[in-house]
Every structure is written in structure tokens, then in C-alpha cells.
């Protein structure tokens, strides 16, 4: 069974920093993409950043220059370093993994961790 375990969320003041971690366990054929998504109340879940197995990275425009996604391949752990946090960053943050070989790819999701940024 594949499990994604997140940590690092919490309450911070605007301008502060948080580092989210996502540890992946269980048998996976291959991890194609790992990413972070977030969802604020009343809004759709949106991509924050993702990284492919080849190292290609994509960021949402709203977080470019402030957030950094990284991955430790040897331990299947992904991180999201969040700096210069804004109240608009308040959301539940989810870890996501796209894994497997076509046509058996599957999306795995973490439980979500709350990030709250005060004014």
C-alpha cells in the first residue's frame, strides 16, 4: 500500500517561512511526477509546484520566487520550502504522486496539512 505522509504545516505570521515534507512509502513501479497542491475554502484545488523524475520543475505564478520544491530520490521524500508567506497562501496543502507505467498510472494523495498565515 502506497502512503504519503505529510508534515510541516502550521500557523505562521506573514513574511515567515515553513518547510513541508512528504514521505512516500510502499511499493511503486516508478514515480513520474511529485507535486504540491493547495485548496483554500470555497476554491478549487490548484497546483503549487511539481517536479518530474527527470528534474523538471513547474511553479504556479503566485509562488514563483518564494517557494522551492525539491526531492530526495533515495528516500522518496519531497519538500516545499515556503518563504515570504502571505495570508493568500492560507490553504490545505496536499502532496501528490503520479506513479506507474502506462496504462496503469495512478494518482496518490496525502492527507493534507493546514497552512495558516496571519496578517
In short:
The chain has no helices and 11 strands. It has 119 residues and is mainly β.
Question: How would you describe this structure to a colleague?
Answer:
This protein has 119 residues and is mainly β. The chain contains no helices and 11 strands. Strands 2, 4, 5, 6, 9, 10 and 11 form a 7-stranded mixed β-sheet that branches. Strands 1-3-8-7 form a 4-stranded antiparallel β-sheet, with no helix packed on it. The protein is elongated. The model has no long low-confidence stretch (mean pLDDT 94).
Question: How are the SSEs placed, and which strands pair?
Answer:
Blueprint: E1 3-7, E2 10-13, E3 18-25, E4 31-39, E5 46-52, E6 57-59, E7 67-72, E8 77-82, E9 91-99, E10 106-109, E11 113-118
Parallel strand pairs: 2-11
Antiparallel strand pairs: 1-3, 3-8, 4-5, 4-9, 5-6, 7-8, 9-10, 9-11
List keywords for this structure.
119 residues; mainly beta; 7-stranded mixed β-sheet; 4-stranded antiparallel β-sheet; 11 strands; 0% helix; elongated
Helix/strand/pairing category: mainly beta
Query: Uncertain runs with pLDDT below 50, 5 residues or more?
Result: none
Q: Give the strand tally.
A: 11
The helix-strand sequence is EEEEEEEEEEE
Task: Give the N-to-C terminal Cα separation.
Answer: 40 Å
Radius of gyration: 14 Å
Classify the helix fraction into a percent range.
under 10%
Overall, the morphology is elongated
Amino acid at each position: 500500500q502506497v502512503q504519503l505522509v505529510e508534515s510541516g504545516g502550521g500557523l505562521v505570521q506573514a513574511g515567515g517561512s515553513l518547510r513541508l515534507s512528504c514521505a512516500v512509502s510502499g511499493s511503486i513501479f516508478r514515480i513520474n511526477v511529485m507535486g504540491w497542491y493547495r485548496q483554500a475554502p470555497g476554491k478549487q484545488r490548484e497546483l503549487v509546484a511539481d517536479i518530474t523524475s527527470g528534474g523538471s520543475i513547474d511553479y504556479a505564478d503566485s509562488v514563483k520566487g518564494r517557494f522551492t520544491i525539491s526531492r530526495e530520490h533515495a528516500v522518496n521524500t519531497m519538500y516545499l520550502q515556503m518563504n515570504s508567506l502571505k495570508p493568500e497562501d492560507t490553504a490545505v496543502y496536499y502532496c501528490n504522486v503520479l506513479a506507474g507505467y502506462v496504462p496503469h498510472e495512478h494518482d496518490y494523495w496525502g492527507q493534507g496539512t493546514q497552512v495558516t498565515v496571519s496578517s
